[in-house]
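Record type: ASSEMBLY
Status: queued
Input:
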Amino acid sequence: MSKVLQKSVPLLMILPGLVLAITIIGYPIIDLAWTSMQEVSRFGKLSGFNGFDNFAEVFADPLFYGSLVRTGIWTLAVVGGTLLISMPVAIILNDDFFGRGLARVIIMLPWALSLTMTAVVWRWALNGRSGLLNATLMQAGLIDQPVEWLATASTAFTVEILVGILVSIPFTTTILLGGLSSMPQDAYEAAVVDGASGWSQFRYITLPLMKPFINIAIVLNVIYVFNSLPIIWVMTEGGPANGTDILVTYLYKLAFRFGQLGKASAISLVMFGILLVFTVLYVVLLSRNEADAAPEKDVKDEI
Amino acid sequence: MRSKLRRSILYWLVLLPLVVVILFPFGVMFVTAVRPRAELFVYPPTWGFSEFRWENFSEMWEKTNFGGALLNSVYVSVTATVIALLLSIPAAYAMSRYHFSGKGAYRTFLLMTQMMSPIVLVLGLFRLMMALGLVNNLNSLVLIYAAFNMAFTIWMLQSYFNSIPRDLEEAAWMDGASHFTSLVRIFLPLAVPAIAVTAIFTFINSWNEFVLALTMMRSSADYTLPVQIYAQVAGRYQVEWHHVMAATVLATLPVAIVFSWLQRYLIRGMALGAVK
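Status: finished
Output:
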């Protein structure tokens, strides 16, 4: 009897948290699945099963495809740009130079500001008449007329991607730095002895050894960026004319502005599916890394 | 030595554009927060301004109901953090010290919940809170923040708990102490720094959250800081940008300083938990 009790101790310890998580995270998923197959009135009343009508409506909606394509561009551009900038920055920050401490603090600064606040500040900085970006460019003599940054969709979207890259750099650099600092020094020393150039050291030693960290950085960033609402919402609310809408902003508008709950839950489920693929990818990557990192230890013991 | 100097100059030159872009919004924030209202919309736009108007901050405090939003934010963030920790500490301890069936499945479940972003579930969450009668009630945010932060807190705590040697507890058991006594008298005191760091990050996450607060809080008296500041900007014909920036400075600065200071612990926890 006491053995049973002993065995249930750890389960009792995780139980309360599990109950909360299942209620708050599990219930909405089921509710969304349920709602997505219902006819929903404008006042949020479910008025009967309608099969996959909501999904059909979503897949016939040009705005959905527009948002989907922009979500792809947004995710790809932000994650790609972030990685391209973060890699050299991480390599620099991992090396020894004067003022490295200060450089690290500055590079990490955007992380300390919440996305909402960052977006609010940029919305003002990009103000078409008196924004300080226009002030900077005009005072530097680069432009002689103020630019309406957020008034046309293509410029606004580009600017939002750049802000997205800026705020993703600290996190990505951190992961890459973690990888770089665990790099075996003797491999580089051997390469230097063999006369390898800086580029081939990077290409043939750093890059292969960094691969697991780069993979993690990519997957995590894809998940975060794909889901990120505040930057676009605060700066343009998906406008002008839906020109900067991505799936999350479109979903939010449908649900809370236009009251199209059935359609919104269908989009939620589509996004949930996409996200699930990335999450599974992440779990697989993690367990593979773990197996790589601890080959001599009993891996099962840790998991 | 000379090569280090040369390298330093080269590195700083490479980093310079990024450093400028990173510091730019901070400059915008401070310069706008202290400039007189009349100098907001000048043409041609300029960085310069005639005087430091520190009264902007006190004016803003009264006009934007900053104090009320501040209290809401403090209440939500503190309560959510306490609940998340109370539920996570035993779970993380179980993960760190016990073998039990379903541990692997639980770990995967935690990972999944960490990846599930609130925005995808926001409509379901809203309907859940409607059903519970908690819309327009700050406690809805408390519950959601606690639940969504738990994967992170359990993960962080577990990785730190793993680094606390078992020997100490085992020695106490030898001396006849019960598991509970050893947990309270020996383990928890050693774990205090880890718990504190985890608590601060949970607090900051809740403090910064925007989408859910925007969705669940329908009346302006219940707004948390991010929503309150957003409400000063969105859908207004005349935005008082000097007040908005002053509010942004006040809402952000304390948290940003603490975050920058504690960042290395976050990195360490992530390195232990995520990447390794």
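Annotation: The CA atoms of residues 101 and 141 of chain B lie 33 Å apart.
Annotation: The domain at 66-275 of chain B is CATH 1.10.3720.10 (MetI-like fold).
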